[in-house]
Design brief:
The chain is an alpha+beta fold. The chain has 9 helices and 16 strands. The two termini are 33 Å apart. The relative contact order is 0.09.
């Protein structure tokens, strides 16, 4: 599936749609405020001449979006996908500005959540390139969880500070890697253990090929109707570079479901809890506000993990499994 650089995205506060030539007047009315650009490397972008160059660049980029207030429909700013690099599995989100009436974090956070949610089914990394003195924008991306990742020359050869949000997640002892077909042989030695299937009703994969076949499904990150996102991570020990299990998340709206598997020989050491906690801290990037896990009532080890994560047992059921909801850091 090709990356759609100009989607229509709708949130509670803000809507995004492709930038059109007839948007110039409404967008310039917002951009003509000099205070928007006071820390920007191009401080004169509030002038019509410089803004026309910015606006044309957006149209030519094929990735520019206009932001409107979800309640009033008023134009309040713009953002852009750019620099898509399939080989590096990377996209830049940038060229963003909002009317000062919509500063304060809520609108910017939702804009970025919508754009990140759209981007991660296609790429493993999202970067933000920001001027070294644009401290306001640097703080804004730090608030949404972006991590400082050095400096880089932008498309015009100017030095920029780089911030990144990555689908690959690191903890003290683990690397959580976006799952790939090549992981199948390494995970087979974990998932072929019959003890792991005691509470699932499933059976161990017969061989590596039987495990590899579903990887086309595992690697997909969006349901056919686009309503649900799926993410799967392989869990690798940093000290031994050995795969010890995997963790899955399905996201629909602002809610997510989570499941984890760690091989028998590595259980009891807190690895599943450590991995799940890291993912719980990552999920708010995509606007997730609640997490649930379906756990068999006799699976004591997974129940203890859910409790450590701050989940609470409910009266709901999914087949024979009980539902645990809520999670530290997500709510």
């Amino acid at each position: 599936m090709p990356f759609d650089l100009q989607p229509t995205l709708k949130g509670d506060l803000i809507h995004l749609r492709p930038l059109r030539p007839d948007d110039f007047d409404a967008l310039f009315l917002v951009a003509s405020d000099p205070l928007i650009w006071e820390q920007h490397p191009e401080r004169n972008r509030h002038t019509e001449e410089r803004f026309r160059a910015y606006f044309k660049g957006g149209l030519d980029s094929g990735g520019a979006l206009i932001a409107t207030d979800a309640k009033t429909g008023a134009v309040i700013g713009s953002s852009r996908y750019c620099g898509y690099d399939a080989a590096r599995s990377e996209i830049e989100i940038g060229w963003t500005f909002l009317a000062r009436s919509h500063w304060g974090g809520r609108y910017n956070s939702e804009m970025k959540q919508l754009m990140l949610r759209h981007a991660f089914p296609f790429v493993d990394n999202v970067v933000f390139l920001i001027g070294s003195e644009n401290f306001r924008s640097q703080r804004a991306v730090e608030k949404i969880g972006a991590v400082h990742a050095g400096t880089r020359l932008d498309s015009r050869g100017q030095d920029r500070v780089v911030y990144r949000i990555s689908l690959a997640i690191g903890t003290e002892r683990l690397d959580l890697l976006p799952i790939e077909r090549d992981h199948a042989p390494l995970l087979y030695h974990v998932l072929s253990d019959p003890a792991l299937h005691e509470f699932t009703g499933g059976t161990p994969p017969a061989d590596v090929d039987a495990l590899a076949r579903p990887y086309e499904y595992w690697e997909r990150r969006r349901s056919p109707d686009g309503a649900e996102l799926w993410f799967n991570w392989a869990l690798r020990l940093r000290t031994q570079e050995e795969l010890i299990g995997h963790l899955q998340v399905g996201i629909r709206g602002d809610r997510a479901s989570m499941a984890w598997v760690v091989g028998s020989r590595w259980q009891g050491r807190g690895y599943a809890t450590e991995a799940a906690q890291a993912v719980l801290q990552w999920l708010p990037h995509l606007g997730v506000r609640g997490v649930r896990a379906s756990i068999h009532p006799e699976h004591a080890a997974s129940i203890r993990i859910a409790e450590r994560l701050g989940m609470r047992r409910t009266d709901e059921r999914s087949g024979t499994e009980l539902i645990w909801k809520g999670a530290t850091g997500v709510g």
